[in-house]
Amino acid sequence: MTKMKIRAPAVAGRFYPAAARELRAAVRAYVGAVHSGSGEDECLGVLPKAIIAPHAGYAYSGATAGAVYALLSPLRGVVERVVLLGPAHRVALRGFATSDAEAFATPLGNVPIDVDAIRGLSDLSYVSSFDPAHAEEHCLEVHLPFLQEVLGAFRLVPFVVGEANDGQVGEVLERLWGGRETLIVVSSDLSHFYDYATAQTLDRGTAHRIETLTPVDERGACGRRPINGLLLVARRYGLTVKAVDVCNSGDADGGRDRVVGYGGFVFTASGE
Prior knowledge:
Layout: E1 6-7, H1 20-31, E2 50-53, H2 58-69, E3 81-87, E4 96-98, E5 103-106, E6 109-112, H3 115-119, E7 127-129, H4 132-135, H5 144-151, E8 155-161, H6 166-176, E9 182-187, E10 192-194, H7 196-211, H8 224-237, E11 239-248, H9 249-253, E12 259-269
Parallel strand pairs: 1-5, 2-9, 3-8, 3-9, 4-7
Antiparallel strand pairs: 2-12, 4-8, 5-6, 10-12, 11-12
C-alpha cells in the first residue's frame, strides 16, 4: 500500500498550540468571543463567499481571525471545498505554488487536498506544484485549525502566491469559484513595522480600499496580490465587502514602535 503524502505542520507550537486539546480550546475561544452589539453581529445571517483573515501567531491576530471565522458557522455542512491563498514568505516564487501532498496535517487532524481541482488548472503556465514553497510556510497553515473547527470536513485547494498579477489571480479564482460549496480564503496581514499611529492610519485606509473594492498597494498588505485578484473577481460578481475587525500587534502586546496590522473582511453577494 502506498503511503499517503502529507504536508506536516511547520509552525505548530510557535504560531499556535501544538497540542490538539489546547489548540481546539484556543480556536473556540477566539471564535466564541464575538460580542453582542459588536460590528461582527451586523454580518451574521449572511453566507460569506470569501474572507480575508490574518496569518500571524494566534497571540497577536487570533482575535481578528476568530471574529471573521465566527461568521462562517452557518456554512458548516454547506462548504465542501476551501480555496486558500497566501503570500510566499520563505521561498522566492513566480506564479502559484500548489502541492503534491494528498493532505495537510494540523494537530486537529488531516485536511484532504482536492487533487482534481488542482489537476484542472494544469493548463495554466503560472500554476505549478512546488512543495518547497509550502514546507515552512505559515500563511496557509495557521488558517486550517480555524477552518477545521468551524466548517468540519472539507477539501483544500492551497496556493502560495508569488509574483502574479491581478488577472492571473482572478483567473484561478474564477476557475474554482463554484457555488455555495466553495469558500475563498485569502491570508494576509496589513501594514508592517510602522509605529502604532502610522499603522492605524495606513490600515484604516487599506480597509476602506478593500471595502470599496479598490486595489491595495505594497504598504497596505503583504498579501496584496491575492487580495487584489479577489477584489477584481468581487467587482465582476457584484460582491459586498465589510471590515469585521482592524487592529495591530500593539493592541495585543503593548509594543507600539514597530507593529503589524491585522484586518478581517467578509465578502457576500449583494442582497444576501
